[in-house]
Amino acid sequence: MGVVIPLGENKPEAASIAALSALVKSGMERVNELILSKAGSDVEMIPEVANHLISSGGKRLRPMITLAAADMFGYRGEGHVKLATSVEFMHTATLLHDDVVDESDMRRSKPTARMIWGNQASVLVGDFLLGQAFKMMVEVGSLDALDVLSTAASVIAEGEVMQLAAAKNLETTEDEYLAVIKAKTAALFSAAAEVGPIIAGASKSERAALRSYGLNLGLAFQLVDDALDYGGNAKDLGKNTGDDFREGKITLPVVLAYRRGTDAERDFWKAGIEKGENGNRELETARSLMLKYAALPDTIQRARHFGEIARDALAPLKPSPQKDALLDVVEFCISRVN
């Protein structure tokens, strides 16, 4: 019988992104149409690979945030649809590349694209989607929005290299790990939130508020994912639980458990993460050590901290349905551990 790890306090009513989905329903319909259109190509393998991941059931949270953030400041036009689609393509390209780097077999309960078409096709189709994303950014005609998203693309790539350099390195510190996820995950959330107010002509302080909201939401989102991999279920995570351990990934729960453990326990982590001794029995031991040293609750506590910063970032903005919906997103991301 597996180790059961309590991840959070149950709430009477689960948080939801239903309000956000309802507010951006019309815009997301246009985003989905544009996704299908821009993922098309005369090269047969490109739409096959792209649609495999695009149609696999992700929530499309990032493009919804872009649409809502633009609507919050009264934007009228179609530019936010193209930017939201660009954001989703950047995210999809990152997933395709990540699965190759991480040698992942499953994504959202389906075989990864690399398992079906191979690593080369996955990388190249990811590059195609990035190219399409930048074409749409140029079509919008906002240099500021192009600057924010292109900077995010560069930061994400840096984050991927940082993660590669830190791979299987159990001496990684908490600060170093947070720097990786700030680049790899939070940068795109931040850009997705900021480009909305940019094309709506919002003030610098309003842009900064959405940028901070997105950045801290992204950090909270990733830390919750880290905890779910050891104590959640595949439905919440979008992949098999325990994959981070099997792939030898350094995540915050591992950093905390390793640093708090005895010499013998650190030897266990070295065998599992560095030497690949990471079967089901070892996974249960890993979960036991995380329970012993409160690594998962402390990871979630840090996620809640960043979630509070995200909420505070929006506090000075005037009330609106979009603001309320974006605040709901913070609670939704955290509540996945309940």
Explain how this protein is built:
- This protein has 338 residues and is mostly helical.
- It has one domain: Orthogonal Bundle (Farnesyl Diphosphate Synthase).
- It contains 17 helices and 2 strands.
- It has a two-stranded antiparallel sheet with strand order 1-2.
- Strand 1 (106-107) and strand 2 (110-111) form a beta hairpin.
- Helix 16 (295-314) packs antiparallel against helix 17 (321-335).
- The longest helix is centred in the middle third of the chain and has 28 residues, at 204-231.
- The protein is globular and about 60 Å long.
- The model is unreliable at 8-13 (pLDDT under 50).
List keywords for this structure.
17 helices, mainly alpha, 338 residues, globular, two-stranded antiparallel sheet, single chain
Q: Which helices and strands appear, and what pairs or packs with what?
A:
Blueprint: H1 18-23, H2 25-38, H3 45-54, H4 61-72, H5 79-101, E1 106-107, E2 110-111, H6 113-117, H7 119-140, H8 143-166, H9 174-199, H10 204-231, H11 234-237, H12 243-246, H13 252-260, H14 263-274, H15 280-292, H16 295-314, H17 321-335
Antiparallel strand pairs: 1-2
Helix pairs in contact: 2-5, 3-7, 4-5, 4-9, 4-17, 5-7, 5-8, 5-9, 8-9, 9-10, 10-16, 10-17, 13-15, 13-16, 16-17
Distance between the termini: 21 Å
The name CATH uses for the topology is Farnesyl Diphosphate Synthase
**Extended strand count:** 2
The total tally of domains equals: 1
Shape: globular
Mean pLDDT value: 91
Just name the CATH architecture. Answer: Orthogonal Bundle
Q: Please describe the biggest sheet, giving its number of strands, its sense, and whether it closes into a barrel.
A: 2 strands, antiparallel
Q: Give start-end ranges of low-pLDDT stretches.
A: 8-13
Secondary-structure class: mainly alpha
Name the beta content range: under 5%
Radius of gyration, CA atoms, in whole angstroms: 20 Å
Task: Give the name of the CATH superfamily.
Answer: Farnesyl Diphosphate Synthase
Written as H for each helix and E for each strand, in order along the chain, the element string is HHHHHEEHHHHHHHHHHHH
Strand order of the largest sheet: 1-2
Number of helices: 17
